[in-house]
Design brief:
Blueprint lengths: L1 H26 L4 H10 L2 H7 L2 H10 L2 H37 L4 H33 L9 H31 L1
Helix pairs in contact: 2-5, 2-7, 4-5, 5-6, 5-7, 6-7
């Protein structure tokens, strides 16, 4: 009898966990507009400035070593914040790409596949850059290798997503004209 109650309790807990996960995933659904607004919220030029080796060289020449380390640490933390945003954006881009893959239009579905693949690469690059930037924040005397692959991948993914948004908009406009 006790074993039965334990099994029932375990089943109820498992059901509760599944309901929670389903509700959380449903609440986290984001459309194309949300992904595009995420693109616009990240100032890629400011991030590029934070990781620019020429800017670092200028600061190294003009500041005392103690001031340089403090500034480099602050810049690394700021760049890390950008990388975290890019990582979150990658997740949103992947969701938008997966949603586009379910489209009946083959061009939209193919673009969705490209976005999902690019988003995965962007997420991996953001993890790699985040680890490097954390190292620089902790040890500011470490050399600064700019995460150019992250910046390039972010820009390519954003461009592909914007093209998909325009394609989806033109398809919706075509559907409304026919009705």
């Amino acid at each position: 009898m006790i074993i039965t109650w334990i099994l029932v309790a375990t089943a109820l807990v498992a059901l509760g966990v599944l309901v929670y996960i389903a509700a959380r995933n449903r609440a986290n659904q984001i459309g194309m507009d949300g992904a595009i607004s995420m693109i616009r919220s990240i100032d890629i030029e400011a991030f590029r400035n934070l990781v620019d080796p020429a800017e670092e060289a200028f600061l190294r020449c003009t500041l005392s070593p103690k001031e340089f380390r403090a500034i480099k640490r602050e810049r690394a933390w700021a760049a890390f914040a950008y990388v975290r945003c890019a990582g979150r954006a990658a997740v949103l881009f992947a969701r938008a790409g997966q949603a586009a893959q379910r489209s009946s239009d083959p061009h939209i579905a193919e673009s969705g596949m490209h976005i999902a693949h690019r988003a995965l690469r962007l997420r991996l690059y953001s993890l790699q850059a985040g680890i490097r930037l954390l190292g620089q924040a902790i040890l500011p005397s470490a050399s600064n290798r700019p995460p150019s692959s992250l910046i390039d991948e972010y820009e390519r993914t954003a461009e592909t997503l914007l093209r998909l948004g325009r394609l989806a908009d033109s398809q919706r406009a075509g559907l409304t004209q026919h009705f």
